[in-house]
Amino acid sequence: MIFVGLVVALVTLGCGEEGGLKGTLKISITDAPIDADRVKAVNLTITNVEGFQNGNWKAFKNFEQPIGVNLLAYTGGRSILLIDQYVTPGEFSSIKLTLNMANRNSSLIISPQSNVVFKNGTSASIYMPEGKAPEVILEKSMGVHSRGLTDITLDFDLRKSIHINDAGEFILDPVVRFIETKNAGHIKASVSSSSIPDRVVAYAYRAGVFSNNETIEGSGKIVFAQAITSTAVKAKIFTLGFLENGNYDLVFVKHKEDGKILEVMGRHNNIKVNAGEEASIEVDFEQLNPS
Question: Is residue 159 within 8 Å of 148, Cβ to Cβ?
Fold first, then answer.
């Protein structure tokens, strides 16, 4: 009986320690950049992060102060850790991020708001589409296991997510990838050309997916819509991050100052990406594959 009592006491003590039988949840944010030169920052202000379980939303993190994230600071394989904490084990079918956003129907300003900041020092509020709540919901299942680690990265694709409506407002219609961080690989590219042309963006596609239809611009149409991620090529070494296992093609595109397409320069095809690894390639802009 003494032995049994000792075991029960030890189990009880273990459950009472920080974490106990809980699991660890990490959620990070990364970004694929916006194309227009004039944009300096895109700030999303997050107030709450929740998971959907058994018909209810359960808060993972309700921030005492809103957390502002400049998404443009976390491109090219960089990310920011949003949550790192113990969570009661369970299965969650969705994740929700609640945002501070401007409200068209109220003069009340909730600060800090999500906004776009321009290089000339001015800024503009970001709005949700008419009738949509200020939140990002990802319908992706996720499990937290006792004494385990659940580590995910949310990849906001600003190029696909932000657009300007007829009233000149910046609208957030979020396009976000959900990646298990341990299953993500990266492409690290070294530029061998003597110089880097201005305003070049590298778009990563699943091998064989890209076609010229991806470049057709039109009202409300997202170009390069099937690109998995992208990055601006501004240095001799650049990275495209958080890619799942598979083969990828990089499509290099030169843009105008306003982000419009100037020309497709060419491609680097069939790059093998493995989970947890970095695929290294060399890029010569004068020797790109035309197709």
Answer: no
Q: In DSSP terms, which residues pair with 29 in a beta bridge?
A: 80, 154
Residue labelled with tokens 């390069």: 224
Other Cβ atoms less than 10 A from the Cβ of 172: the count is 23
Neighbouring C-alpha atoms within 13 Å toward the C-beta of 265? 22
Question: Using one digit for the tens of pLDDT, what is the confidence trace for 191-201?
Answer: 998 888 899 99
Q: Give tens-digit pLDDT for 5-49.
A: 333 333 333 444 445 699 999 999 999 887 677 899 999 999 999
The class that CATH gives domain 184-291 is mainly beta
| C-alpha count within 13 angstroms, C-beta hemisphere, residue 230 | 22
Q: Where along the chain do its domains lie?
A: 1-183, 184-291
0.85 cut: is pTM over it? yes
123: Cβ contacts below 8 Å, ≥ 6 apart? 115, 116, 117
The span from the CA of 233 to the CA of 193, in Å, is 12
